[in-house]
Amino acid sequence: MGKTKDFTVEDKLRLIYDLQLIDSKIDEIKNTRGELPLEIQDMEDEIQGLQIRKEKIQNVIDVQKEEIAKRKLAIVEAKKLIDRYTEQQKNVRNNREYEALSKEVEYQDLEIQFAEKKMKEAQAEIEKQTQKITGYTYEKDGKPVVVKGIDEIIGQREDDLKHKREELAALMKETEKQEKILHKKGEEIREKIEPRLLRAYDRLRKNFKNGLAVVSIERGSSGGSYFTIPVQQQLEIRTRQKIIIDEHSGRILVDGDLAREEKETINEMFDNL
After folding, report:
1. What is the pLDDT of residue 53?
2. Which end of the chain is flanked by fewer CB atoms within 10 Å, N or C?
3. Residue 3 predicted with pLDDT over 60
4. Do residues 133 and 150 lie in contact, with contact meaning Cβ atoms separated by under 8 Å?
């Protein structure tokens, strides 16, 4: 066909419709994968969320372990003070000094009791949080009830994700060669289409869920919107002298004969892939 600037309007219409046919075929291939890519993304997000939750639980456990370590040190210090005060009581000069030391011993004893209480609370919290990670079993109406931990749930989700990825990889492998050829052919056509028309095409593709930016006239109506095209405009479209836009949908319109000719050409290429 030569350079872009030498293309006739009909050439441009054939090119843009060929690109639509190729892009639609690529869309079909992607649709064969169904919801798999979205399912995989959802699974990945869920696993990431579970891992973040596990990290938060582990942080709580770590804080409680630090609390226990701190309280143990406090008990050791309190016992040292008790020993010191008890030893000092042996050398007191009067009852007043003895009573003062006794109060110090009593205070340190209370400190030990308080620290032990805090350690038990921290240990209970560690066990509670650990069960969230490892899972646990309890009885209800005389029957054991198993509560899954995050580790098990993550493991199951990762297994499911692995199978879904394998399923997607198998589907992609089946169509990989065909898709690559179609993309290459699409890029070759894109290079021949003038930038302004190509931008309009890409914009329309994004605007419509089915990706149809170029449609043909069938039985007096435009594909995609199904609105009746005025007879005079249908005649203009058949002449292929200018690019006509559907006033209802904004899509680029081509006549049915041109569409059938290009479909035969592109379908023949599809069959040979």
Report:
1. 97
2. N
3. no
4. yes
Residue with tokens 């030569």, as numbered in its chain: 2
Residues 255 and 247: beta-carbon distance below 8 Å: no
Q: Quick one: 78 exposed, middle or buried, by C-beta within 10 A (0-12, 13-18, 19+)?
A: buried
Name the average pLDDT for the chain: 92
Amino acid at 14: R
CA-based nearest residue to 153, from 37, 35, 49, 39: 49
Q: What is the dihedral of CA 224, 230, 233, 238, to 10 degrees?
A: 70
Residue-wise pLDDT for 54-73, tens only, equals 999 999 999 999 999 999 99
Q: What are phi and psi of 220, to 5 degrees?
A: 80, 0
Q: What is the DSSP string of 193-237?
A: S-HHHHHHHHHHHHHSTT---EEEEETTEETTT-PBPPHHHHHHH
Q: Burial, 197: exposed, middle or buried (Cβ in 10 Å; 0-12, 13-18, 19+)?
A: middle
Q: Where are the beta strands (DSSP E) in 41-181?
A: 136-140, 143-147
Cβ atoms < 10 Å from Cβ of 100? 13
